[in-house]
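Thread: sanity check for a docking pose with NAP

Original post by kr_44:
Hi all, I'm comparing my docking run against an independent structure prediction. Below are the sequence and the ligand SMILES. Could someone generate the full complex and paste the structure tokens? I mainly care about where the ligand ends up relative to the chain.
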Amino acid sequence: MKAIVYEQYGSPDVLQFNELAKPAPADNEVLIKVRAASVNPLDWHFMRGEPWLIHLMLGVRKPKNIRLGVDGCGVVEAIGKNVTQFKPCDEVFGGCRGAFAEYVCAKEDQLALKPPNISFEQAAAVPIAAITALQGLRDKGKIKPGQKVLVEGASGGVGTFAIQIAKALGGEVTAVCSTRNLDQARSLGADHVIDYTREDFTRNGRRYDLILAANAYHSLFAYRRALSREGICVKVGGKGSLGAFFGESLLSLMLSTMSSKRVYGILAKINKKDLQQLKELLETGRIAPVIDRRYPLSETTEAIRYLEEGHAQGKVVLTF
Ligand SMILES: NC(=O)c1ccc[n+]([C@@H]2O[C@H](COP(=O)([O-])OP(=O)(O)OC[C@H]3O[C@@H](n4cnc5c(N)ncnc54)[C@H](OP(=O)(O)O)[C@@H]3O)[C@@H](O)[C@H]2O)c1
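Reply from moderator J.T.:
Ran it for you. Here is the predicted complex with NAP included:
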């Protein structure tokens, strides 16, 4: 089978489009013939080995697992002996480590059936980005109907889902993005939009009950300034080193003893229950993936280069 592989950390130039043996599923896995995969910032973090903590997770000098890709969608071809919820020919989507290949094995508990009303490409765009938005808003952010919710970085992979999920969960949503993305944010359901090239939402005097910072570009103090008295800010990703992240987390913990405002970081986890909830939202049309660009698997290098520029308008998808 054809697959994207990398044998050393580095720029997109380290990626190769090679022939690999077709994998066999372990007892708790299904073998999927991949029909589409999506690209996430996590892929270029894995590819570059940045931040350095990635080396400790994936291999100190070089990656132990040479395959890339974390989100996929396709058709079940075979199942491991302990798999009970899927059978051959089922169409599935979810977390698939090594999804940039014609075949991938994925754990049963990280998959759900693909909603029949959307394409393979649309379903591949969902897992990490939408689960991050869902867990950020619902679990860490404790979103409640009627709350004022602000999504920063509202035009990227996580942000486009966050606008729609926050609306579906009853929030009054303000989307922060650049000028060219304002109409897209409105069309996804945002009640208000702020152009970050013209206005700094942390200095306009308005307060929010929940801020989901998909791309966080402000200081801890700026986020706290924009929160209502018991407001919560959930930082998903964006600018800043790992050291700064841990430093801010510690400071945030100390500040939370003095006021009821909260600023949290989040590490999203793919799981079947949340994929199932997203499937329902997709089936009822309450959320829909936004796909910016499509690349064939053989052009994964260009897809990652584009995503790394940091200005994707929705998701970048690989087609097979
Ligand atoms: N913690 C977790 O579990 C988790 C999970 C998934 C992702 N992440 C992280 O979350 C971040 C977002 O992921 P993503 O998939 O949404 O990335 P993405 O698709 O690459 O985000 C690109 C978007 O960011 C916007 N952006 C850039 N600068 C901005 C600014 N100053 N203010 C507001 N928006 C800005 C861009 O809009 P413009 O072109 O208009 O600037 C673009 O639409 C990444 O850092 C990723 O690593 C974390």
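Residues 40-41, 128-129, 132, 152-153, 155-159, 176-178, 181, 196, 214-215, 217, 236-238, 266-268, 307, 310-313 surround NAP (CB under 6 Å). Hope that helps with the comparison, let us know if your pose agrees.
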